[in-house]
Amino acid sequence: MSYPPRRYVADSPFGYPSEPPQHTRWYDDAAGPMVRPYAMTKGRTRPTGREFDLIALVVSNVPPDTADLAVGPEQGLILDLCQNNALSVAEIAAETDLPLGVVRVLLGDLLDAEYIRVSRPVPPAMLPDEHILREVIDGLRAL
């Protein structure tokens, strides 16, 4: 397949016509243009550090009146949500209406910058055995 010859245009850069302007697609009047998730995470699909469990609790370390942080709007929203209370990773994803993978990458960036604290859940292997707990309850009842 051959392409049509390019024609010379006198007033354009390099003598060729410039690309036609691309129109931004809006999905509704209030939403604005849509940003793809990979644009928010700079193409990353995993956080830089350890994985975040769905029930890991996140708390903001940033004072509420700090406005000059070098974070994006989504990360600023996460910091605002976690300012006065601990939220799980699943709750943050639901509140921000972002995919869970995107929230995990954004949380990883915030954790690397030390803007948040994350308390991870206790692994099941470290929990006491149910048999031991029953014996303790039975011993307390015997008192």
TrEMBL record:
SUPFAM superfamilies: Winged helix' DNA-binding domain
Pfam families in the record: DUF742
InterPro entries assigned: DUF742, WH_DNA-bd_sf
Domain of life the protein comes from: Bacteria
PANTHER family hit by this protein: DUF742 DOMAIN-CONTAINING PROTEIN (PTHR36221:SF1)
Name of the protein: Uncharacterized protein DUF742
Source organism of this protein record: Kitasatospora atroaurantiaca
